[in-house]
Amino acid sequence: MGEENKKTKFIYVSQPWIAGREKEYVLDAVSNGWISSEGKYVKEFEEKFASFVGRKYGISVNNGTNALILAVRALDLPEGSEVIIPSFMIISCALAVIYNNLVPVFVDSSLETWNMKPDEIERKITEKTKAIIMVHTYGYPCEVDEILKIAQKYNLFVIEDFAEAIGSEYKGRKCGSFGNISCTSFYSNKLITTGEGGMCLTDDPELAQKMKNLRNLSFIPEKRFLHYELGFNFRLSNLLSAVGLAQLELIEQRISRKLKMAQIYYDTLGELEEKKIIKLPPRSNRDHKNTFWMYGIVMAIKIPAKYIMDKLKEFGIETRPFFFPLHLQPAFRKFSWFREQKLPNAEYLGEYGFYIPSGLDLEENDIIHVAKTVKNLILEHANI
Ligand SMILES: *Cc1c(COP(=O)(O)O)cnc(C)c1O
User: Fold this and answer.
1) Protein residue closest via CA to atom 12 of ligand 1
2) 145-199 pLDDT, tens per residue?
3) What digits encode the pLDDT tens for the residues 74-108?
4) Are residues 260 and 223 in the same domain?
5) What distance in Å separates the CA atoms of residue 384 and residue 378, rounded to the nearest whole number?
6) d(CA 4, CA 361)
7) With 142 labelled, which of 73, 119, 148, 175 sits at a CA distance of 20 to 30 A?
């Protein structure tokens, strides 16, 4: 690649796409003074998002991590209970367990789908296990039926974290519609964003009410400032809900932009996958519809991701490493439940995986440019 290629504009890994009525709704909220979590946009956003996903109740919160904390809290599990989560995931899932005085139990993921392996889940179940947090990694739905079946067999709760799979589908049903409670994030890199924000969804009226109370300091309607429970202030503001509502109105366009992006990447990089140099994200199939939250690449030859990522940066292309496995996190070593263990796939993905620019703002020629640069660079270093 010549020097001239290095001078093209810098392409970020993900930037928000603000193309609808965001400004109008926010201005409306500001002009009318409704800027706290009271205000019509909060309810409207909750209802419309829940209806998009196919859930009865939506309880908005101020970020995705708190959505998980709230969901776990609402299950009222006995102290020290075990909750199964994938090791190859963001730390939020583990924090939600730990902050509720429960014990996270990490399972390995598949090298094909990058999602938690159902047979590994079953092997980790003890009499202390009370729940599973199932997560759809980078947009590809996990093995929902198999996980639900295990949960039923052992009488476990299921929390679904679909922050990376808004709009994705499993057997024709939207991700976010499975398990007792589902949680999402509306952080700025998610398919729809409020900048910072999140939501818990459920079909269970009691859980919905419980989460609403807990989100709002567990105030009770009968007597103000009397509390029977330890709550949180996790409320989402009307201003941010106004942004979310406008984002939701264009959700179909957002999904098609992601699918288009993925198609271009597959078309250009597919050849490297055929040659077994890299592994690309799992493609959509009959039971799984991927919306490609982030387009990942895993090196199948032993060149660490970091090496390729540093080279891409020189060409003005920003990337991100895959998750660092949770079972190796230094922050967890001080806990009595911490165990040295090997989860080889999570470790492999953490070292050899990275994702390339996947933001909704990318234009077709940016995507083509990224795809070609990535392809040439990897070919150059693959020595074949
Ligand atoms: C983004 C994300 C979160 C955390 O959401 P925040 O809003 O950043 O707190 C949790 N789980 C998954 C799977 C995510 O991708």
Assistant:
1) 163
2) 999 999 999 999 999 999 999 999 999 999 999 999 999 999 999 999 999 999 9
3) 999 999 999 999 999 999 999 999 999 999 999 99
4) no
5) 10
6) 24
7) 73
